[in-house]
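Re: [ENG-882] Designed sequences occasionally contain unexpected residues at chain ends

Forwarding the minimal case from QA. Structure tokens:
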């Protein structure tokens, strides 16, 4: 995969700022740009596309009528109808690698780290006065890293392992991709 690593500013809550580290699939990004589509955030469409393999024909009559309607209404460049088959063209444009959330307190960081929990490795940046033993123990239990404002790693984050691929996960990736696209202009 031809890719580049990017940092995306993200504001998951009023009390936190975050930097999301992503790996952009440049081939998919350029393909989408060439056909005029950006982020695809229609959850029903993504759910249907999850059942179609990338680049391989699936007989049109192999999927139910409701799913056929969804596919036929999809933006150009998403799925090709070739003869009596659907061929999925769309794939995830980015992989979310990690998030670094900056917050005034451990409690204020909770919504942001929960938001990203099913998607990537998470680290919270806090002032040293906020890093009490109980906070460190809770972070370690949750697999969340803690970094000081100076950038010193105080608690290492647990490496993220993708346990399953879901249409919700794909949708989340598309929303982060949408943020990345907005920052490109």
């Amino acid at each position: 995969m031809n890719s580049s690593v990017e940092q995306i500013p993200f504001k998951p809550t009023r009390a936190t700022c975050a930097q999301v580290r992503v790996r952009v699939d440049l081939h998919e990004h350029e393909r989408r740009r060439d056909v005029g589509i950006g982020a695809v955030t229609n959850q029903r469409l993504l759910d249907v596309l999850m059942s179609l393999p990338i680049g391989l024909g699936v007989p049109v009559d192999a999927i139910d009528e409701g799913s056929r309607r969804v596919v036929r209404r999809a933006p150009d460049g998403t799925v090709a109808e070739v003869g009596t088959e659907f061929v999925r063209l769309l794939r995830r444009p980015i992989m979310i690698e990690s998030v670094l959330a900056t917050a005034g307190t451990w409690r204020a960081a909770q919504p942001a780290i929960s938001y990203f929990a099913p998607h990537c490795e998470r680290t919270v940046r806090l002032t040293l006065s906020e890093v009490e033993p109980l906070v460190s123990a809770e972070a370690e239990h949750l697999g969340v890293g803690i970094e000081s404002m100076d950038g010193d790693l105080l608690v290492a984050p647990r490496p993220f392992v993708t346990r399953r691929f879901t249409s919700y996960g794909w949708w989340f990736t598309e929303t982060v991709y949408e943020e990345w696209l907005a920052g490109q202009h």
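QA comment: On inspection the terminal residues look reasonable. The mean pLDDT is 92. Proposing we downgrade this to a documentation issue.
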